[in-house]
Amino acid sequence: MALRKRALLPIGIHLNLDSVHLVQMEQADGTVALVSSASKVFPADERNLGKADGTRADAKDIPEEVREAHYRHAREFVREQCSKNGFRGKEAVISIPSEHLVIQHVRMGPMQPEELVAALPYELQGKLPFDPRQAVIRHIVAGTISEDNQTKQDVIALAVARAVVEQQVASVEKLGLDVVGVGVEPCAMSYPYVFAAGRSAAPPEGLPSLMLVHIGALATHAAIVRGEETRFVKGIPFGLEDVVEALARDQKAAAANARATMAAWRQGETAPDAVAAYNRIWSKVVHFAEEMESCMRYYGSLARGAKVDRIVFLGPGAQHGALVQVFGAHLSVPCEVGHPMGVVGLEGAGGETEPELAVAAGLSLFGAQ
After folding, report:
1. Of 72, 86, 223, 265, which sits 20 to 30 A from 271 (CA to CA)?
2. What is the per-residue burial (b if ≥16 Cβ within 10 Å, else e) of 209-235?
3. Domain annotation covers residue 1
């Protein structure tokens, strides 16, 4: 029997303030196999996520020197894992840390794709915290609308300052890796599902629309995909630290105690006491559910009444199954914990869903055919 020719895919490196994740896959004859994976979650006290008054901080509140010290430690973890944990080759695809990504909606007149690319920097002047002419910009045309009796395109721009991209690439290349691609969280987390859709026959009832929700420590990204198309992305100012803060107040306990309680609940993800506690703090997190509902309404308004068929939770937040269960009970759309490694048909993917690996897996798959 002939041996299958295997194509080694790049190492996907997902780096944020709360954690670092690595995934590498290889492809052969239409199948995907795992080469290696590794993760490190940094303790909250090491991340300096809290303010002096005990409330959680946003990424922008964390001093630059603190962020850089964290990222140095994270990159050292990447170096160690790439040298001893079964990763092969030197090619890597990296994600830009979420605090550097700006998502901006604009409305523009109809134009050809190349004209839109040229016009976006001018349209974004004054709407970004940096000069659009000195930025890397990608975009999604979400749909068309009628405004003042004129047809316009609703465009979602994803922008990162070019200097940030260059700095991130240089810092990873210092580890001896060759950066062959750069992604951002809301797009990379979607790619396992886009990849799987491109290799599956469309069901008789048509392609489903999935809303993917990546909950991190400090921020959340939502994306809506249908088949191989990403139709919508948005950043939501919500993270696990908001849940920790609300739970700590409910329990009249320190944030560290609330985190420990949540960690214990993860061992029995649908434990009644966890569900009851998350329901008690619902008023403190209901705005997150409202943001998701707003995203779905927006998608429906642009996609001629299209509806989201399922919400898939990803990222560290999705590890808390009881929390997902509570969100699902309050939303009108079925909710589930994502299984990014399984959805691509990964050989050997077992019962562990590992939703926190969605972005790293998507980054590795950027090189897949």
Report:
1. 223
2. bbbbbbbbbbbbbbbbbbbeebbbbbb
3. no
Q: How many CA atoms lie within 13 A of 71 on its CB side?
A: 22
- Our measurement of the distance from residue 13's CA atom to the centroid of its chain's CA atoms, rounded to an integer in Å, reads 12
Rounded to an integer, what distance in angstroms lies between the CA atom of residue 296 and that of residue 302? 10
Q: In the beta sheet, which residues pair with residue 255?
A: none
Q: How do 19-28 and 7-15 pair as beta strands?
A: antiparallel
| The token pair that represents 90 in the structure block | 């030197």
The pTM for the full model equals: 0.92
| Residue range 37-57: mean pLDDT, rounded | 65
Q: What is the CATH number of the domain that holds 188?
A: 3.30.420.380
Strand partners, 314: 214
Given a contact cutoff of 8 angstroms between Cβ atoms, the answer to whether 334 and 189 are in contact is no
pLDDT of 353 strictly over 90: no
- Domain membership of residue 85 (yes or no) is yes
Q: Are 187 and 158 in contact (CB under 8 A)?
A: yes
- DSSP annotation of 208 reads P
